[in-house]
Design goal:
single chain; 6 helices; rod-shaped; mainly alpha
């Protein structure tokens, strides 16, 4: 909300600035016509004033653009900070998980990704999704249990696998 106020104040200021420079430009034009300025030494101050007015019009354009941005396009400060916090927490979890995967072999990576994507997945489903034999999957799960990355719990006739990773 603060940015909207600043934008409104800047817009009002730029309107007054425009009026000032238009009046100054008209006065300089009138004065130069009265003197008959071409290459007269009396015209040098007027020419310098025209440069000042041109710079003023550029400043006016910048302030108007900034005020329109603040009024209509910018998000509030709180929205922006909330977005950054959400983005930071998302990136941290993904980055930590990718770093964790660096210490695992290809089979362990494949299995752990499946377990994280579906907590409580059964070993039978995991066997199908990871495209491994039951013996190989059992060996990989045992290795992951030794590394304290997963835990297995009995669920009827099969085992459900859960991740123990908490970031």
């Amino acid at each position: 909300m603060q940015t909207k106020r600043i934008g409104a104040v800047l817009l009002i200021f730029s309107i007054f600035l425009l009026i000032f420079f238009v009046i100054t430009y008209q006065e300089l034009s009138t004065e130069s016509e009265e003197i008959g300025c071409f290459n007269s030494p009396d015209c040098k101050p007027i020419q310098a004033s025209f440069s000042f007015v041109d710079l003023g019009f550029g400043l006016f354009g910048f302030i108007v653009a900034l005020s329109f941005y603040l009024l209509f396009l910018s998000k509030g400060d709180k929205e922006f900070l909330n977005h950054l916090k959400e983005r930071k927490s998302t990136l941290n979890h993904e980055e930590k998980f990718s770093i964790l995967l660096l210490g695992l072999d290809e089979f362990e990576k494949r299995v752990l990704k499946e377990i994280v994507s579906q907590e409580g997945i059964t070993q039978n489903t995991l066997c199908l999704r990871s495209d491994m034999s039951k013996a190989k999957l059992s060996q990989v799960l045992t290795n992951l249990e030794k590394k304290n990355l997963i835990k297995r719990q009995q669920q009827k006739k099969t085992l459900a696998v859960f991740s123990t990773i908490r970031f």
